[in-house]
Structure formats: structure tokens, C-alpha cells
Amino acid sequence: MWIILALVAVVAGVILWISYSQTPVAYNPPAVVPPVNQPIVQPIVPPVTTNTPAPVNSPAPQAVLNTVNDPALGVRLIATNGHTLYYFTKDLPNVSVCTGTCATNWPAYAVSPNAPLAGVSGVTGNVGTITKPDGSLQVTYNRMPLYFWHLDQNPGDTLGQGIQGTWYVAKP
Asked: What dihedral do alpha carbons 27, 31, 37, 41 form, nearest 10°?
């Protein structure tokens, strides 16, 4: 009987030794989580730089807002994938009221919780985020939540402009 218990203890010790001697695999989440069905594209222009050095071990800000000069609409905000960003006039500062079907048609511009935010030169307002009920982070500009229009299929499309008199392209 003692021999069986000793063998069980040896086997258990070997199993524990093997499981703890394995090298752990590090998980590195993506820097930007694209909105549903939106590919990640690198920023069009480099991020804004300042004279203030970043704290040690602090990731560099990531440009999540770019601008484009539209002949019909003037300078407007675009995401890193080149798609147009919109704001909803019924939203409140730092509060999105777009839920249900609205959120399906107007997906939030979401980012990773680890990504420091910035805009490129020409983005003069405050870039931030709000936490959605599902825990995702939605990008805000001057405290207003930013969205995509689901029918804008290509960068440069502005099909959501003026819809229902409440949706407009975001401007810097």
C-alpha cells in the first residue's frame, strides 16, 4: 500500500514539475480594435508631437483621428482606416444614447483600452474615450462620441451626412 502511495506522489510531482517548467506565452492585444467589419489601416499622417517628453515606460500616443479636406464638406475627421467619422446631435457630452438598431447602423469608433490617444496635426480638440455598456471604449472628440455609418463602404464616403437631421460628419 505504501508503495502505491509513493508512486502516486512521484507521478503527481512529475506532472507539477512539467506544468510549471513550461514557458508562459505572452498575450499582446492589438493596439486598436477596429469597428465591426472595418480593417485596421495605419494613420495617414504621423501623430502630433509635443515638447513635453512622455513619462518613462509610457506608450507613445497613437493617432486615432486624422483629417481630410473634403471639397463639399470642408475639413472633417476620419479614423485611421480612412473612413468618415460622425457625431449624433442627440448625444450628450461623454454619453452615447445610440443603442439597439441605432448602434447597428452607426457603429461606435472603438479602441483598445491600452492605447493612448492623439490626433494628428489639425486635430485641435480633445481626443478621449467613454466606456460603453458592453465595456468597449468609444472614441470621443471634444467629449462627443464618434461613429461610423454602416453604408459608408469606402474611405471618403460621406453617405451619413445629415441623416434624419441629427447625424453629421465630425469636424476638427
From this structure: -130
SS3 annotation, the chain: CHHHHHHHHHHHHHHHHHHHHCCCCCCCCCCCCCCCCCCCCCCCCCECCCCCCCCCCCCCCEEEEEEEEECCCEEEEECCCCCECEEECCCECCECCCCCHHHHHCCECEECCCCCEEEECCCCCCEEEEECCCCCEEEEECCEECECCCCCCCCCCCCCCCHHHCEEECCC
The predicted-structure confidence for 16-66, as pLDDT tens digits, reads as follows: 444 444 444 443 444 444 444 444 444 444 344 334 343 444 444 556 888
Rounded to the nearest 10°, the torsion over CA 119, 122, 125, 129 is -20
146 and 139 Cβ atoms separated by less than 8 Å: yes
Q: For strand 62-70 and strand 117-119, is the pairing parallel, antiparallel, or unpaired?
A: parallel
Cα separation, 138 vs 103, in Å, equals 12
Residue found under cell 501623430 = 47
